[in-house]
C-alpha cells in the first residue's frame, strides 16, 4: 500500500537539489503569483483603461455641456419671464382697482413655474452625470475582469502540458483512492 508521504503532491515534499519540482508551500508562492498577475494586469491594462476612461470623460463632458446649454436656455426663459413680469407689474399698476390680487397670483405662479423648471433641469443634469458615471464604472469593471480572466487562462494554458496534466491527475486519483480505502475500512 502506498503511503501518503510518497505522493508527488504531498505538502511537505521538497525536490532534491538540481532537479525540477513544484513548490507547494502555499504561503510562499501565492504572494509571488499575485504580484506577477497584478503586475501584468497593470502593465497591459493601463493603456486600455486610460483610453476607456478618456472616452467616458468626453461623453460626460458632452453631457455637461448639453446640460449647461439647457441651463442657459432656462436662464434666457427666466429673463423673458422677468421681462414679462415687469410688463405684468406695469399692467397691475393700471388695473390695480380691478384685480390687484389676481395679478399677484399670476406673478407668483409664473415665478414658481420658472423655479420648478430650473430645478427639474438641474435634477436632470445631475441624474445624467450620475448615470454616466455608474455606466463607466461598470464597463471598466467588466473590462478589467475580462482581461484578468483572459490573462489567467493564457497563463494556465501556457504552463500546462500533457505530461504535467497526466501526472497531476494520476496523483489526485491515487490520493482519492487512499482516502476511499480509509473511509471503507
Question: How would you sum up the major sheet?
Answer: none
SS class? mainly alpha
Mean pLDDT: 80
Roughly how many Å apart are the termini? 14 Å
Radius of gyration: 36 Å
The portion of residues assigned to helices is over 70%
> Beta fraction of the residues?
under 5%
Tally of contiguous helical segments: 3
Count every beta strand, where a strand is a DSSP E run of 2 or more residues.
0
Q: Output the helix-strand order.
A: HHH
Residue runs with pLDDT of under 50 for 5 or more positions? 1-15
Shape, principal axes of CA atoms: rod-shaped
For this entry, give a set of tags.
mainly alpha, 3 helices, disordered N terminus, 185 residues, 0% strand
Kindly describe this structure.
There is one protein chain. With 185 residues, the chain is mainly α. It contains three helices and no strands. It has helices at residues 26-94, 96-159, 162-184. The chain is rod-shaped, with a radius of gyration of 36 Å. It starts with 25 loop residues before the first helix and ends with a helix.
Show the helix and strand layout.
Layout: H1 26-94, H2 96-159, H3 162-184
Protein name: ATP synthase subunit b, chloroplastic
Pfam family, one: ATP-synt_B
GO molecular function: proton-transporting ATP synthase activity, rotational mechanism
Q: How do you describe this structure in short?
A:
The chain is built from three helices and no strands. It is an all-alpha fold. The chain has a domain at 32-154.
Amino acid at each position: 500500500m502506498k503511503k501518503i508521504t510518497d505522493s508527488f503532491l504531498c505538502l511537505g515534499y521538497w525536490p532534491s537539489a538540481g532537479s525540477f519540482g513544484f513548490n507547494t508551500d502555499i504561503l510562499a508562492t501565492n504572494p509571488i503569483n499575485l504580484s506577477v498577475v497584478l503586475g501584468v494586469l497593470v502593465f497591459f491594462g493601463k493603456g486600455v483603461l486610460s483610453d476607456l476612461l478618456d472616452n467616458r470623460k468626453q461623453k460626460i463632458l458632452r453631457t455637461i455641456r448639453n446640460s449647461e446649454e439647457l441651463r442657459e436656455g432656462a436662464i434666457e426663459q427666466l429673463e423673458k419671464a422677468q421681462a414679462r413680469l415687469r410688463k405684468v407689474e406695469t399692467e397691475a399698476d393700471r388695473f390695480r382697482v380691478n384685480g390687484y390680487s389676481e395679478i399677484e397670483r399670476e406673478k407668483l405662479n409664473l415665478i414658481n413655474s420658472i423655479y420648478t423648471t430650473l430645478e427639474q433641469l438641474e435634477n436632470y443634469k445631475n441624474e445624467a452625470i450620475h448615470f454616466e458615471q455608474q455606466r463607466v464604472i461598470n464597463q471598466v469593471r467588466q473590462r478589467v475582469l475580462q482581461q484578468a480572466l483572459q490573462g489567467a487562462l493564457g497563463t494556465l494554458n501556457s504552463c500546462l502540458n500533457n505530461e504535467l496534466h497526466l501526472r497531476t491527475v494520476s496523483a489526485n486519483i491515487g490520493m482519492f483512492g487512499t482516502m476511499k480505502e480509509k473511509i471503507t475500512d
